Amino acid sequence: FVGTPSFLMTLINRAEEMGHDVRRDFALRRAWFTGEMLPDRLRRTMEEDYHIATTQAYAVTEPGGAIAYECCQKAGMHLMDEYVVEIVDPSTGRQLGPGEIGEVVVTPTHNEAWGLIRFGTGDLSSYTTEPCPCGRTANRLVAILGRTGDAVKVRGMFVVAKQAEQVVHSFEEVSQFQMVIGRRQQRDELTMRVELKDGAIDKQRLAERMSERFQSLCRVAIDGFEFVESGSIPRDHQRIVDTRVWE
Fold first, then answer.
1. For residues 206 and 171, is the Cβ–Cβ distance under 8 A?
2. Are residues 164 and 233 in the same domain?
3. Which of 44, 196, 220, 240 is least surrounded by Cβ atoms within 10 Å, i.e. has the fewest?
């Protein structure tokens, strides 16, 4: 299969509604995804429940198509030689370093008839210079984390809703969450509002684990947790609420 992960999941669900056993009735063994982000939870469903080996690529139509791709290690997407890819601050255009989240900016070098220079994709990502376990040494995009409008800057670092979801969804104890960005004594503060599936969970231990995971992935520390009653956070809520007032 080649296409978007959501469309493949739609096909699988439809096949099951028609009475098919997807693993038994279809010779579907590999999927190469592009066109939208592949959430970790959906990847696990594809691989563990349906035994479909998944890889993904990052493609942008205007510069010429596929720009980066996953190898079998699934440890980020290798940048292709035909493009100069930068990660920049969306507000200033300043180049950012490894691990810093910013906008993906692309310059194709393989098409002399199409003079596209520093095309802003609107996609948010970061890159790593660490060699891949597969042996390739090219820089890799860590992941596509969202769109520039989905991010908010906290203490100089971008916090992206999709990246926060990746963290929170790894904790089965959590049913809903919301990040609230405030400001106190000229300092940004990030508070994580959390609904739990079971109120008897050790909240302090959970907060410690979530804080460690969040800071490792998002590079910003959570300043505090607010555990709220079930139903306090609507299902169609904003993931990030920015209450800062700049005076």
1. yes
2. yes
3. 44
